[in-house]
Amino acid sequence: MLHAEVKSETLKKLVDIVGTIVDEVKLNIGSDGINLKAVDPAHVAMVHLELTKNAFDSYEAQETELGLNLSKLEQFLKLSSSDEMVKIDHIEDENRLVLEVDKITQKMPLLDTAGMTDPNVPQLDLPIHLVIEGKHLLKGVKASQNISDHIALTAGPDGFDMFSEEDEDLVRLSLSKDDIKELDAPEEVRSLFALDYFSSMIKSVSGDTLIQLELGRDYPVKLEFDFAEGNGHVRFLLAPRIETS
Amino acid sequence: MLHAEVKSETLKKLVDIVGTIVDEVKLNIGSDGINLKAVDPAHVAMVHLELTKNAFDSYEAQETELGLNLSKLEQFLKLSSSDEMVKIDHIEDENRLVLEVDKITQKMPLLDTAGMTDPNVPQLDLPIHLVIEGKHLLKGVKASQNISDHIALTAGPDGFDMFSEEDEDLVRLSLSKDDIKELDAPEEVRSLFALDYFSSMIKSVSGDTLIQLELGRDYPVKLEFDFAEGNGHVRFLLAPRIETS
Amino acid sequence: MLHAEVKSETLKKLVDIVGTIVDEVKLNIGSDGINLKAVDPAHVAMVHLELTKNAFDSYEAQETELGLNLSKLEQFLKLSSSDEMVKIDHIEDENRLVLEVDKITQKMPLLDTAGMTDPNVPQLDLPIHLVIEGKHLLKGVKASQNISDHIALTAGPDGFDMFSEEDEDLVRLSLSKDDIKELDAPEEVRSLFALDYFSSMIKSVSGDTLIQLELGRDYPVKLEFDFAEGNGHVRFLLAPRIETS
Questions:
Q1: Which residues of chain C lie closer than 8 angstroms to B109, CB-CB?
Q2: How far is A224 from B89, CA to CA, in rounded Å?
Q3: Global confidence as pTM
Q4: 3-class SS at C91?
Q5: Ordered alpha helix ranges (H), A8-133
Q6: ∠C156-B96-C193 over CA atoms, to 5°?
Q7: I need a surface site. Which of A66, A67, A177, B174 has the fewest CB within 10 A?
Q8: A72 closest CA partner among A110, A101, A102
Q9: Per-residue pLDDT averaged across B11-30, rounded?
Q10: Domains of chain B
């Protein structure tokens, strides 16, 4: 059972974040809020998103699972402005979601969740931890996209670097300790990532979003940030590429 | 003979409205203004447009017919801003139109109107009459486009509905009596229409344009509105689709 | 040797101007500034651009040549806003350019300039000279693009015309003496040009840029304007088409 009201922009953000990884997702509905875990078809990136009931204007729910087509939800949300209120109702016997905004009502069939299991999120003990503003990640990715399909992330006691090279072209965004909000990097580490995945993961963040990064040596990167005024939280995990040069 | 001056935006609106139905059109020029009647190639939609001489800054004309290519006129109008004045002259012996705006003069050959007869506009006695703001129609159409190629219009004593369904998806925009400017609907009627045609007919209206709708049971819809500060008037007629389910 | 700092917008303008003619160009670096000469692959249009050291915030250079890929430079410049400062360094032993803006550093291999000779700019004694604002050229080109692939430029004691025709369509932008900043046209001349080339040459100018035109009878057109607050100057030369009608 789910009966809730939430600002359109909160759902838009959820779709933006999760839609970079998968098209269809299973939402786990609980009495305190919703969460989801999804892995992309190539098993390279994983997302874990939580949205507490405080993100909603009203929220009544019993534990259940909803199989959601994110494109359909995105299309529906385009009918509303960011601060309009969306009403959500789950009609259990029809397995359909009823969405209402302003004068519009849409009934949407839900997907069968039988084959949609939550992926296991691996427990990683990553030695490097830092917090930086979204604008730096966005700019570093844009610079790397000009020349390469890969991006290397490097962190150490002196700062954080995003680096790409291809033939004789190379580009680097360098953040010194002063450009970084928090830096806990006792040793120097570096890992290489597929640029399209990494750029997808950050494309929903705004310039002033604070992003937590956890890194190791040739290890996955963990990237976390809040949304929905702190009532939503998202964790991305991205597997590294093997350095061939 | 035609010798006239008119604001660019008035001609742009005419092209917007008629261009959704046909690419080439015969303008009937009279001493009191111009009018045109056109039907789309599939004979599903019809437009009847009138523009009185008051819509023009200056207007001198004798009865004649002009065969117009709307795309060429649209391209010319893009050279001007909305409130610039366009001079129109018909050079009869060349059968060309001379258009002038600012420092630009364009001579445009006219089409042979011999084979372009005015379609007969059927006289329909439609039982339901209502007036609503353009914004509702625009939103209802946008919602329907997310899921279907068809749209059902329903009106009755309680209000007006735009409804589409496809497989298990369905979407509805519901206007209660209070959302409707005028409602004269003694009985409940419903007709189904091709969504691409219906959306074309309304795509030139702005959110606050008042639109007159006339409806029957499985009957054509008539849609009328003013433009050019009330000096222009347009009537669309759209044939219904047969409900197959 | 080159070691300089310059506003991003100055480099963006240089790329805009030269990129309409060639993708790769040889920059001649001197102690007083840089210059380049380039001809398009079909040898129809030629550009000669000069940028004095005053256009730079700091400038130290010894005579050298740099082979530049303009698309790569354009991509790099998109990482910066117009008034951000770009640092340029030539690493001679690597034959690479190092570009820095904000926190980003890019190293770009330079092209081998061995086969890139400066084209000879022909000395033309063109009888007609005029100065007009960019907005007129932009509008005349836009009007001509609606109907033709060619544009005729005509100048004489009474003014300046841009004219195109195709079948029975024709369009003309006419500037009288009063619309023209300077007019030195003792005789009436006319030359025909390929519209795509002519539009490329002016597409980087703004509406209020003053443009010098020099014309003859069935002769090339010379088009000159300043940029970078007068510290940059560009000359275009475009060969005429033969009138076939």
A1: 167-169
A2: 67
A3: 0.92
A4: strand
A5: 8-18, 70-77
A6: 40
A7: A177
A8: A110
A9: 96
A10: 2-109 (3.10.150.10), 128-238 (3.70.10.10)
